[in-house]
Amino acid sequence: MNLLTRIAMDLTDDMQMVPDRDVAEMTEWRWQLHRHPELSGQEVETANRVIAMLSPTQPDEILTGLGGHGVAAVYDSANAGTTLMLRCELDALPIQEISSRPYRSTVPGKAHLCGHDGHMAILATVARWLGRNRPRQGRVILMFQPAEEDGSGAAKVIADPRFAKIRPDVALALHNYPGLARGMAMLAEGPMNCASRGMKIILTGRTAHASQPEHGISPANALAELIPRLTALGTGGAVSDPDFSLVTITHASMGEQAFGIAPGEAQIWATLRTRQDSGMDRLVTEASRAVADAARESTLEFAISWHDVFQHCENDPEATEILRNALLAEDIAIRADGLPMRASEDFGRFGGGARAAMFLLGAGQDVASLHNPDYDFPDALIAPAARVFIRCVAQVTG
Ligand SMILES: [Zn+2]
Ligand SMILES: [Zn+2]
Question: Which keywords are on file for this protein (predicted)?
């Protein structure tokens, strides 16, 4: 047994690691967060709730307004050592929740349907433990990151000048994962989440009277051609394939809802997805060329803009080992197949300056998928997930 594993095991008998009282209070707190969702970049009240929850644990410092509305609590041993960051997300989704639960969203059209409310409750539970157990060496940073859902938050946090003060050596995170049994995790070194980005295409011709379309320039043919042409550039398949790529048309529109006008403008929105960043460069080039060709054939102007840009997320071997030790010490079985996830995750940005890894924690097999209007984070995950993170803290800064 190596040193790190022994440190992890030393906590096994610590019945106070996550007291029942903390779990009960954090469950109620999650319900509060769930009732009051805020979208990416607008997490003002959520950040205030986080600050109010962290303050009694007396961190050495709380940084607010990081990269928008991010909050980071610093627990410093005052001794040299590793800086470990645990990260969760503040934001909810612009989707109407379908739920009869008493704590359902009170905000029309917005809801916590990715479980970020649960991730915050997990880190707040770790904060309680850190309030009672200071790190012996190095520092622990609890990072409540804004704007994960649109892919902008981690980059903005890192670009914030104050991030230099808390730059981590090791960064860890989790995501709850419907479809995977409770009590199981998915974790492996290497690619963890695919790269993705939104491509917005605007085709511009000239409107005309519907009786004289020859006096206008219609984008109809280009629109009709581009949908299958773009889709054919990324047809999915096994995500384990290094060349995996997927193009999903998410929106298309053209002209006015009128019978008297021949259309002069069309839009196509597509999401491009690849296993790794290198594949994305190629897909972007191919998709851009397809648009240029189709526009030229129809003598249209065109504009392409990029949105929600996610780099692929890569698990560092040493950081993965810390998570693996902690999961095994909690008797959580680990699957390494089925990765990377097709869905993207902006946590990968932290891997640019730190040894970073994240794992997926099973939310159960009979629950709705992430982003479905009836998804709800399972409260039963709060305690085991907090225990896993506490074991990581003990390994790195104990
Ligand atoms: Zn999400
Ligand atoms: Zn999420």
Answer: Hydrolase
